[in-house]
Fold this protein.
Amino acid sequence: MQIRRFTVLLLVFILLIIQPAFAFTSYDGQEDMEILQPIDDDVYAAGGNLQINSDINGDLVVTGGTITVNGDISGDLIAAGGTIAIQGNIADDVRIAAGTLTVSESIGDDVIAGCSQFILEENATIGGDLAAGTDKAYLYGDVAGNVSGNFGNLILGGNVAGELDVDTDKIQTLPDATIQGERITSTDTQPGITESDENGYGFMDIVFWLLRYIMLLLTGWIILYLATNRIEDMTFHLTDKPTHKTIAGLLSLLGILMGAIILAVTVVGIPLALILLLIMIFLLYCARIIAGLWLGKKLFGLLGRTTTRWREMAAGILILLLLGSIPYIGWMVYVVSTLLSTGAIYYLFKEKVRNRPA
């Protein structure tokens, strides 16, 4: 059963995530950013307030506080943010992690979303399946495929052409709503038994797994964009002196954790303790990204192919998460890769300090 779960994840996400495009256009993390000119390329952007007011002939990958997509996207939309509004047409899949997601136009294929609130407006349509984990969902538009997931409160006002298979606390069906397929709703769970225990990976397991991948991918892109040379240097020398780096990584994380605990004992030191914990979280993210980039470089090297750093990182992080999902040994993959990469970060900073002019 455990091996079957891992195999399902492997097949689903290789087909779901890997993209065919190698070239892309990137924008750095400005507080307010607006894209006004049409772009014939994949676009990767990060900022506080993002306005996509032109058509994108490719995929759009964005992260920010508030994201508004007014233009049409010919490929996929992958986004993570606080508030996301899709007011243009998306030709292919949509994958979202957000506080509030509003869809006002048509989406050509599947939607996978994890958010606090999801709104599908009356004239909006989803051309494939909708899979979501959300506290509140307002589905006033039409879904051409199935609707599945975990919904706290669900209001259904449009047409569902496929099945409605949801776990929900409350469902309200408006007079104009129709469900052409089978309706399966559940609010009861047997104590100690979850959907994951009975059927392999449950829906929410897959959603959260996907959201982890998206967040690592977007964070990795930002870090790689801002510190390309340093990340490349750490990746290139990652396996030099692996024992030393693993020990250094362990001591570094323990040192930060112990320092935060000691500071938290005093009232004055609490802000510094929080800062140390944030630094540790940032280091853990960086460690996963460095390990993923190293795996991606090795993969494309074995295949004899040359590609972009973005492609290497995307493939490598996917491999790392998949290896981490292997029963019984996945945790060891995470521990070793995290400590080794953290040690690489330590050695880089140590070298920078040593070479700094007196």
About this structure: Residues 1-24, 188-201 have pLDDT under 50 and may be disordered. The first helix runs from residue 2 to 17. Residues 90 and 107 are 5 Å apart (CA to CA). The two ends are 60 Å apart (CA to CA).
